[in-house]
Design goal:
- This protein is an alpha/beta fold.
- Helix content is 43%, strand content 16%.
- It is built from 11 helices and 13 strands.
- The strands form 4 sheets. Strands 3-2-1-4-5-6-11 form a 7-stranded parallel β-sheet, sandwiched between helices.
- Strand 5, helix 6 and strand 6 form a beta-alpha-beta unit.
Length: 341
């Protein structure tokens, strides 16, 4: 198959593109390689994709360096290729940054997604899969989080834009019968991860003997999900087209399904742990103790996350299962090798 992966220089996009190439699919990557974080890491990911493609006989890989908010660039990409799937993983990420620079999120997450939706509609793409986030659950404290819960109380603007993506996708599924599937990722971590995320920052500081900051005094819990498990879920879902629900009732609408070819799935480990235990896993893998600065909860942060993945299991017979100890150890080993520390 020929598959477009947006955000191919990003954390999840890179891993997804690499897995697709490894199984023999033709991949077109699309990314603007912006400077939100270290572009050297993004360039290293792109080099790795080229190396993987070169090792796969008969596999084609191309990369488009452009901004999804550039309609001409997006339309040209779709004019040059006929895609069997579009896996849209590009976005302006980061909760803190969305509080300070909300317009960056409108540019990438709203304008960019409109261009993807329009291109998929015009090209009659068989299935659009796109990244959402567990952050859409917002002020909801009913755990575990289920796709059947309402998600209309975001705690920060990043979550609001991702919820907007879900609503935008539904409108295209309804109006144009475009099959769309949204995936709510839960705290993704692993090798090649983002430098602005906790695991990367904690590992860097612990190995260099610098203190780490634990907000909410480390008491909140997260459903940490290893990158390989996320990718397996993405690919399995992409291979099963979204279809209209035969049991959907407009008098009692279910947020997870629709009379349109539209689905939403959680992808999480279904096993939340306290942040203090996450730090302990890093200490064990790094072989040294963290210096910890305890701080109060930050604005916009959820206290706890916990993914109900029963719908994912039912749909594609898959449940993430990598333990935090194994996943963190894999990251620390990658970090030591990549940064030679």
């Amino acid at each position: 198959m020929k598959i477009l992966v947006t955000g191919a220089a990003g954390f999840i996009g890179f891993h997804t593109a690499r897995a697709l190439l490894a199984r023999g699919d033709h991949v077109v990557g699309f990314d603007n390689v912006n400077s939100y974080y270290d572009t050297a890491l993004k360039e290293a990911r792109l080099t790795e994709l080229e190396n993987v493609a070169a090792q796969q006989a008969g596999v084609a890989y191309q990369f488009v360096r452009a901004d999804l908010a550039d309609q001409i660039a997006v339309d040209q990409c779709f004019a040059n290729h006929t895609f069997d799937r579009v896996i849209h993983l590009a976005a302006q990420a980061g909760i803190r940054h969305s509080i300070d620079q909300p317009r960056d999120y409108v540019h990438s997450n709203i304008n960019g997604f409109v261009n993807i939706l329009e291109a998929c509609r015009n090209a009659a793409v068989p299935h659009l899969i796109y990244a959402s986030t567990s952050s859409v659950y917002g002020a909801n404290t009913s755990l575990p989080y289920s796709e059947h819960h309402g998600v209309d109380h975001p705690l920060q603007f990043y979550a609001a834009t991702k919820r907007a993506n879900e609503l935008m996708a539904h409108s295209y599924s309804h109006l144009f019968r475009l099959p769309t599937t949204g995936l709510r990722f839960f705290t993704v971590y692993g090798p090649w991860g983002r430098p602005d995320m906790a695991l990367f920052k904690f590992t860097r500081n612990i190995l260099s003997g610098e203190p780490i900051r634990l907000y909410n005094h480390g008491q909140h819990t997260r459903d940490f999900t290893y990158i390989d498990d996320i990718v397996e879920g993405v690919i399995r879902v992409s291979d099963q087209f979204a279809v209209a629900s035969e049991t959907w009732n407009s008098n009692a609408p279910d947020p997870a399904t629709s009379s349109a070819p539209y689905r939403i799935f959680n992808i999480g480990n279904n096993d939340p742990i306290q942040l203090l235990d996450y730090v302990k896993a890093i200490e064990d893998a790094a072989g040294c103790e963290a210096q910890i600065e305890m701080l109060p909860l930050q604005a916009g942060d959820a206290l706890d996350t916990f993914a109900d993945v029963s719908e994912l299991i039912s749909a594609v017979n898959y449940k993430p299962a990598t333990s935090v100890s194994d996943g963190v150890a894999a990251f620390v080993a990658w970090y030591r090798q990549h940064y030679n520390v």
